[in-house]
Amino acid sequence: MKHLIGIICFLSAAITASSQKIMGFSEANAVKQLEWEKQFDTKLRPADQDEWMKFLSSHPHHVGSPQGKANAEYMASLFKQWGYETEIAVYQVLFPTPKTRALELLGVKPFKAKLEESALKEDKTSGQKAEQLPTYNAYSADGDVTAELVFVNRGIPADYEELARMGVSVKGKIVIAKYGGSWRGIKPKVAYENGAVGCIIYSDPADDGYVQGDTYPEGAYRRSDGVQRGSVMDMPIYPGDPLTPGVGATENAKRIDRKDAITIMKIPVLPISYADALPLLQSLGGQVVPAAWRGGLPITYHTGPSKEKVHLKLEFNWDIKPLYNVIAKLRGSELPDEWVLRGNHHDGWVNGAADPLSGMVAEMAEAKAVGELVKNGMKIKRTLVYCAWDGEEPALLGSTEWAEDHQEELRQKAVAYINTDGNSRGFIGAGGSHTLEPFFNEIADVVTDPQTGVSIKERKYAQAMVNADKAGRTKLAGNKNIKLEALGAGSDWGGFLQYLGIASMNFGFGGEGSGGEYHSIYDSYDMFTRYKDPGFQYGVTLSKTAGRTTLRLANAEILPVDFTSFQKTVMEYTSELKTLLENMRAETDAENKMINDKLFDLAKDPKKVYASPLVKEQVPFLNFSSLENMLVQLKASAEEYQRMYSKGTQLSPDKQKELNEILFRAERSLLQEKGLPRRSWYKHQVYAPGFYTGYGVKTLPGIREAIEQRAWTEAQENIEVVAKTFQEYTQQIKRVLELLKTVADPEKKSF
User: Fold this and answer.
1) Which of 132, 335, 457, 715 could form a disulfide with 444 if both were Cys (CB 3.0 to 4.6 A apart)?
2) Strands 310-330 and 143-147: what pairing?
3) Both 127 and 80 in a single domain?
4) 248 and 382 belong to one structural domain
5) Burial of 2 by CB count in 10 Å (0-12 exposed, 13-18 middle, 19+ buried)?
6) What is the pLDDT of residues 398-418, one digit of tens each?
């Protein structure tokens, strides 16, 4: 009986596998693809990832370091062994390192900040002081300033509005801000705009220190002397080398003068630990901060200004340094001039085990397994390009310079770009072009979570249900679809998606490997294997997920593009904009009424002298009709394409090639060459990093940010720009439909 049950289960599994449909594959080719994917899984070995990480994280490997070059050569050698045509693409970029760092509190109780992390016997690589980058923020300005100190919470625009309401000015002051709430580069940018002369950023224990759990090495969280290094370059203007915007930073590239590089900060900026922050915060006088601003230190948090002055001095070596991108290609057997790109960066601020090597070794495992399958007879239809980027941490340097350097070729050949970065135990997180959302969900259905034994989609759904409130659970019930997050900034997709219009995805696992090692000397092999992903179980799971994504894109007969998913998403974004306007109008009306009531009351007493408060401009009604009309046309075309999609596998090879070229270039039509207002590098009209959020995305950014900044004429102009953009995008879908209609009517000629 037991034997019979086993046979029945085997047959059932075989029938399920043979009948499973995959987007873009005919039934016969789907069966072959699924069989190769099974073999792919068997070739993923946790021991490989462990071995590679041990070597790659053995020494600090920042831009220009000996280990950075050694790591590139090590990976290039492995890719060559696995059958890839491999090169190391070298670029020359501006990468500042600190020459002088000083921070001190003056006055009757002077204090000098330590600005250093402690070596630990429990962490073998933490004592490599001679090789480590000091604690600093890259692309800070040089500066020597002495001023009173003001606490600005997270240092985002809303915090300065709150300070203004409290009557606190930062003009001529040094500000101190908590990490979090936005990308770190926004903090000195907004501080400068408000008149500050210096900026200090510290890690509060409420965010990733002892409030969250035991500190390293007893636990995973940030020690009192742990510091988060990081770049503060104004990447929402443009990423990459500050001196070569729009062109690859090759040795002979034309460079602008450093004083003209608008992405370098205008004031000195320094990151510190919460141990160094405590005396500074204790020096603050002034009002007690709002409840939401308070952190985890054992003090009462005040706004300031400080009772004594603070001295901040920073000097940098403004050097041009080499960076090393590893580019490994596996030539496609049928469509060699269609490229599927897969990338992860290899540089770290120090030893960088979690960020980025946990993702890098997963990518290497994929590439090795694919190479073995090809040697065993698997054919890859499209060319695979595996990339290991250098210089991501300072400013997305390696990927941006390579994309700019090869932009014409990429516009012609790139089908999609798949990115990963840090990885740890937990739940899948995914973002990207919404045309790829159904495709990704198919993959999430068949990859098994190693901890629970259910699919990674099921586990993500369970997490969403647990975290939702009652109303949210009702809305979610039965809807297991993973909604892709829109991509802003934060990793290496920018040059591909937002500059060149190449459909992109980014994903990784997390949520159960949290800690406080980020950008510190404690992001090490010892830390990672103890707390983040012991046994590399989720490293293998990431390889399975990204490997299937890459292989299916490479071998699909018809690319797995879904315009309906995209159309529904942009309709949601448009509704959000209208709601934003309505809310702003209601808030403005309420604020103005309150001001007018106050003025009326004051006017009753002619003896009273008062300053007239500022009445806000009324929020106008913008005309969305052109955009909404285009969305109606987009919806009709997208739905018709969805109904006809399966016919694509019946086209002749030449017609399939023609169809696929339209499909993968459709994303290019979402670009406008003149780019977004005040930042022409960002050309995508649907996704961009926020001007004042950095990592955080702004969708339909030209319209949304104009509304937020109350630039009504600009908002209306951008509504028309986006409407025309969607008109061109819809035309691409109509071209696809004309081709698909030739299947039903062989006599019909395509355009």
Assistant:
1) 457
2) antiparallel
3) no
4) no
5) exposed
6) 999 999 999 999 999 999 999
